[in-house]
Amino acid sequence: MSSVRQIRDLLGTHAADLVSFKPLLWPAADDATMTALVDLHREGKIATYCDTLLMQLRELLDVRNPIVKLSNEDLTLRAQEYLNGVSPERYGTWVYYPWHSKLVHVLPEAEYRELRTSRNRNKITVEEQGVLRKLRIGVVGLSVGKSSVVTMAMEEIGNEYVLADYDELSLSNMNRLRAGVYDINVNKAVLTAREITELNPYAKVEVFTEGLTETNIDAFLSGSRPLDVLVEECDDFVMKVMVRERARAMKIPVLMETSDRGLFDIERFDKEPQRPLFHGLIKNLDTKRFRGKSSLDKLPVAFEIIGGENMSSRLAASVVEMDSTIKTWPQLASAVTLGAAVNTDALRRMVLGEFTESGRFYVDLDKIVSNGAGIAAHPKSSMVEISSEALANISLPTVRRSHTERLTQEQVQTLVSYAIMAPSGGNAQAWRFVFKDNRLYCYFVRERSGVFLDYKDLASYLAFGAVAENIDLVCEQLGLKAEFSLLPDAAHPELAMVVSFAPSVEPALNTELFNAIAKRLTNRKIGPRQPLTAGDDQRMCADAKVRGGRLQWLTEATQLEAMADILGPGDRLRFVSKVMHPELIHEIRWSPVEVEQTRDGIDVATLELSAVDLIGLRLASSMGVMDLVGKVGGGRSLEKPARKMIASASAVGLITCSGEHNFRSMIAGGRAMQRVWLRATALGYSFQPMTALICLFWRLLDGAPNLKPREKEVLEELRAQYLKLFDVTHHDAEIMLFRIARVEPPTAHSLRLKVQEVLTFEG
Question: Coil, strand, or helix at residue 258?
Fold first, then answer.
């Protein structure tokens, strides 16, 4: 027989009790009690016997006479006098706890309560204790809720407790729930009820082991009489709303603590029966939008409820990792314990009339107990809801053919209005134009460009190449020929190029590409993968070749998956880098108001993020959060957007051109890139640049200046994988990595600076 089988056989009827939570109480003075105890003993159901009644009685008499210091012998004599001839075993109450097979002897109820709460005085007076003891308290969700209600029971706030939770204790719960390994698989409501009655066997406890449901919610709130207060700590957002609606209808106040930064909510529906749920912080309380959703899908609602921008950095960093390196919300015992103290303290003061308001409060130990401690303000969320409607199309002036090389002011404005529709890294638009002596001077405004990704200004010159291509296509429509003098030089460090104009009698051959200028944009929408239409890849290759570029394609599923494995970690690297992260976040415009005010940067609406991903980005916008993510080696969820994009791609393309990585190759490459982008637009493909990795490779290939050793190591690993997909040598300048797809039109597009902001006339 195996040792495991032997143990099971020896245990016999002493198998774990998973359901009982009510102790059996017998008055010690009753004759029937002694018979019952003898039967329990005979049946072998008493594993532990504890009779400390005389010790309890001595302590009771001691606390009743605080002035007189009595010895143990004196207290024993007084206890015997107090019993007045009654045998100690026939005094008080015998309590049997079936789940532990323990028999305990305690004082009668009134004396037991008096002694057990004697250390509360006079933080809680005897009269106040009597008021608090009358409460009927309901608790939904017994992780944070367990700690809270047990703390209330310890202070003897309440005598009737109604507990609801459908979940059983698991080992991972024990990082914050006080329990033993023998309690695993016990329902949390049962477990909590046991702990309460082990503190106070006279307490009345009801449990709803199926949790709170639509069918039992009224029974939970009403029962033998309505609850005096509800402590709501459940994870089910549908039930969070539903139970508040019913509590409000019944004028039951609701308390909630989130165990992060000591965030505590109190909704005094007893005083404010018309008060909006969650203080009106949630815009849409229709529970249909999160019924049956996963924890990650419910994240936007949780974000609204707890005020996501006020999350602690560590929780925010953890949320970024959900469904990647961690399964669900993290909670710590210290935070749960603090939450229990906040719930209990607030409830006590509420019942005693010392705390009368509803509201949201923070007991943030990071702020209160810190270097140079001070109490920080907690502003409301500054998030602005993003409209799903597309921004209005840009209106462009009509192009009229010229009969002379000298341009009118109207033609120059037309020319520049099309020129500035060129793409630029982060939509920085680091350009300025001066028209003088029939020449257009194109200046590089360095303070508008990035620093780290715009290595040696290469990304900015790439944008000027796209500007040049637009100018060429517009001049063709004007009946002009554009001639480009490429700079800069030592004498003109900020001058990118000068454009001269000559008359042309050639017909406008590229009307299709010209018409695509106003339609060209970045489209980050995703959808089902659709293959390239036959011949389209070669047409775009031909456009790149016109400007000396070479276009390579990845179209096979295995190639695209390999590309996702490169791009995702590259994006993660940007987020966790203390140098790159600020530049990345600086590019983003978070609201329509900000978009219109700046008319540059990346409108967050163009990122086409789901509600969950948008919250992830908001959390990731904090360098403190990303620093923590980096320290724990996390951030896998930061790779998801790139993986989604590639999963939707018809193809990924790489444009290169011969030569070194310098401003001339970038301008030539920028022209090739723009022609490919315009052709893709004309053919009905969405186009999304994915150039950050290429920009990092420029730095890596130049000796990796300002890269940390680990960043260099990661980039070298990614480049090795990248070179297995593309034919690139040291003779090639890498210009643009991008994806094209067949998807719906974008939600929005980023704006451009107005022509009058970037164009001046001289002479």
Answer: coil
